[in-house]
Every structure is written in C-alpha cells, then in structure tokens.
TrEMBL record:
Residues 1-19 form the signal peptide. This is Slit-like protein. The lineage of its organism: Eukaryota, Metazoa, Ecdysozoa, Arthropoda, Chelicerata. Keywords: Leucine-rich repeat, Repeat, Signal. SUPFAM superfamilies: L domain-like. GO terms for cellular component: membrane. InterPro entries: Leu-rich_rpt, Leu-rich_rpt_typical-subtyp, LRR_dom_sf, Wnt_signaling_inhibitor.
Length: 219
C-alpha cells in the first residue's frame, strides 16, 4: 500500500492545479503494469516481471498522462532501459523496491520538470552504465536510498543534480565514507538522515552553509 504524506499531497495539488488529471489508460494497453485512479491522481504499479520491452511498451502508452506515483516492485531488468522511457511522462513520485534497473544514460532522465520524490528501497540496484548517476532532477524535494548496502557517498552523485532537494535519507546502509563536499552544492537541504550506518564522523565541509539551512541531522 502506498502511503503519501499530507505535505506531499498538498505539493501535488499545487503542481496539478493548472493540469487536468486524466483517467487511467485501458488495462490492456499498459500490461503487465496496471493503473489505479485515486482521489489525488493516478498510481501506476509495475511488479513481478523481467521484460524491458514490456516496460517500454507500457510507458509509451503513458505519455502525456499526469501520474501522481509510480511503483516498480520486483523488476529484474537485465537489458538497459531506453533513453526516452520517460519522455513526455509527468510523474511526481517514484518508488523502486526489490528491483534492478539499468539505464543507458543518467537514471530517471526525462523527469527533470516533474519528479518531486524519489525512493530507492531495500535490495534495489540502480545503474547508469557501470555506475550510479542521477539525471538532473531540478524539482526533486526528497531523495531516499535505504537498505541498499551503500558503502560510500560520492561527491558527484548529487551535487549539480538536485538543486532543490530538501530531504535526504540514507538509512540502514553500510556507509563508512562520505566524500568531501558530497552535499556542498545542495543549498536547499534541510534534513538528512544516515541512521544505522558505519560512519565515524561527519565533517562540516560536506555541506553548504549547514548553520543556515539544515535543521535536522541524524546519524
């Protein structure tokens, strides 16, 4: 079951204020994914299949739809996802659970102007070629990567990619190292949680003016 915080629903309402939310497409058009319409928009769920071509076909049918939330659950895709997978698709929240996704370019390219929240959950692997590289997501406010056996956070992962992110969560990983200035260009950052890791220390130089913006730091 998807639980969306009240503040997030409010943000979605503002985002959709000038946009008509469409009905779900026909079931057969997006199988093996499925769509549900709820009070605050459309929810699309793709679960328990391994076909990249099936996912590509489903999202081609979702172009020009306004989707509140997408869930990828138990997808093990060995082929790289196409560059235009999210082209003309308006998605506000993206959740990945127990899945392996390979992107041929920076992950989640095409969602720069719409994605507000991204959560990469337990036992999920996101790769862009041979490494983890996010696309620039200028609207993103919340990024979570929990229980993914991360051992370090590189300075190239987030800086310059998430200019408006306010909340970061890296709980329940195996993080022992955070590269210098890893969060230094995230000037809007307010809250960061890195609970249940192997960190020994956190340096002030990792952040951008922490005394002015960050009100919650949990390690």
């Amino acid at each position: 079951m998807l639980l969306i915080p009240v503040y997030f629903i409010y943000t979605l309402f503002v985002a959709f204020a000038s946009c008509a939310i469409t009905d779900c497409p026909y079931k057969e058009d997006i199988e093996p994914c499925y769509c549900r319409k709820v009070a605050y928009g459309l929810i699309v769920v793709c679960t328990n299949f391994n076909s990249t071509s099936s996912l590509e076909r489903a999202f081609k049918r979702m172009r020009n739809y306004y989707v509140t939330s997408v869930l990828f659950h138990r997808l093990n895709l060995t082929d790289a996802l196409p560059n235009d997978l999210f082209h003309d698709t308006h998605i506000n929240q993206f959740i990945v659970e127990n899945s392996t996704l390979k992107f041929s370019q920076p992950a989640f390219t095409g969602l720069d102007d719409t994605l507000l929240s991204l959560s990469v959950g337990k036992y999920s692997v996101i790769k862009s070629k041979d490494d983890f590289t996010l696309a620039r997501l200028s609207k993103l406010q919340e990024f979570k990567m929990k229980s993914n056996n991360l051992v370090n956070i590189r300075s190239t992962w987030l800086n310059g990619k998430l200019p408006n992110v306010r909340t970061l969560v890296f709980d329940n990983n195996d993080i022992t190292e955070i590269e210098e200035a890893a969060f230094s260009k995230l000037s809007k950052l307010e809250s960061i949680s890195m609970a249940n890791n192997e960190l020994i220390s956190v340096n002030r130089s990792m952040f951008s003016k922490p005394e002015l913006t960050i009100w919650r730091l949990s390690i």
